[in-house]
Specification:
- The protein is α/β, with parallel strands linked by helices and about 270 residues long.
- It has 11 helices and 9 strands.
- The protein has one domain: TIM Barrel, CATH 3.20.20.190.
- It is about 40% helix and about 15% strand.
- Helix 6 links the parallel strand 4 and strand 5.
- Helix 10 packs across helix 11.
- About 40% of the residues are buried.
Length: about 270
């Protein structure tokens, strides 16, 4: 009797543990700075929406503030997106919180504050905690400054390894990721005119998972070479539906886009 109970208990425990494992989407759609076509880039609404529309990855950019906080923003200053101009690395997080980073989006789309409420620059840890609440969408972190060690440390502290990847064109930053956390995937961003053969060799040596080229440099031959090296071929950043269709036909497996819902619709239509 004891033996039967022990077996049943072990099977039940295995089932429960298995159910707790994340089962992530695999659709090749990276929501660039969140769903940034519909919401202000790199804001919590953009990230929530990226998850809600069903992208398998959302992408974001990080800097480190004067007081050591990891914040989510793309530029060195807040001038482009905000209502005031602060240098991110030379400002405290409390200072950066005073900037309405939805300002540019609101103006470009001619929206009122009721239609597009003010947004604060989020902390990376806020976004990671949001992403950890679900088991479908992961987040790719792009370090825009030398803060990889701090970012990986935060990921480990929050037990976020399975939910996280990194992307950037900086070889030093991406190599640091693999040195500090070998199991975290790296999407190495490359330009249109990059030496693909050299890139493939480096990517394999460093243990990277993907090469993400600027869309203007994509050819069917390059896609074949990347796949033959057992790497994922991706492109950044594409919002035009005709170009999306062309790239998918050429065998591209991942597209970074501000319009994840549009890309998902096109991919679904292709599979119908």
């Amino acid at each position: 009797m004891k033996s039967t109970f022990a077996i049943l208990f072990a099977l039940t425990l295995t089932t429960l543990l298995s159910a707790a494992e994340p089962v992530f989407l695999q659709n090749g759609v990276t929501a660039h700075r969140g769903n940034s076509g519909a919401h202000p880039e790199n804001t919590m609404p953009a990230f929530r929406s990226g998850v809600a529309v069903g992208a398998d990855w959302i992408e974001l950019d990080i800097f480190q503030t004067k007081d050591g906080q990891l914040v989510v923003t793309h530029d060195k200053t807040t001038q482009r997106v905000g209502d005031k101009n602060l240098d991110v690395a030379n400002s405290t997080f409390e200072e950066l919180k005073t900037v309405d980073v939805a300002t540019d989006f609101r103006k470009r789309h001619q929206l009122s504050k009721e239609e597009c409420p003010p947004q604060q620059m989020p902390l990376l840890k806020e976004v990671l905690k949001l992403i950890k609440q679900q088991h479908q969408t992961r987040v790719s972190i792009q370090p825009k400054a030398d803060c990889v060690k701090a970012a990986v440390s935060l990921v480990k502290r929050l037990n976020m390894g399975p939910w996280v990847g990194f992307n950037d064109g900086n070889l030093n930053y991406m190599s640091q990721v693999k040195q500090l956390a070998p199991t975290i995937p790296v999407f190495w961003d490359r330009g249109a005119d990059t030496d693909l053969d050299a890139d493939i060799k480096i990517a394999k040596q460093r243990g990277f998972e993907a090469l993400v080229l600027h869309f203007k440099g994509i050819t069917p031959d390059k896609v074949r070479k990347i796949k033959a090296a057992d790497l994922e071929p991706g492109v950044w950043t594409v919002n035009d539906p005709a170009l999306m269709k062309q790239l998918l036909t050429q065998g591209i497996e991942r597209i970074y886009t501000d319009e994840p819902a549009l890309l998902l619709h096109l991919k679904q239509h292709r599979s119908d």
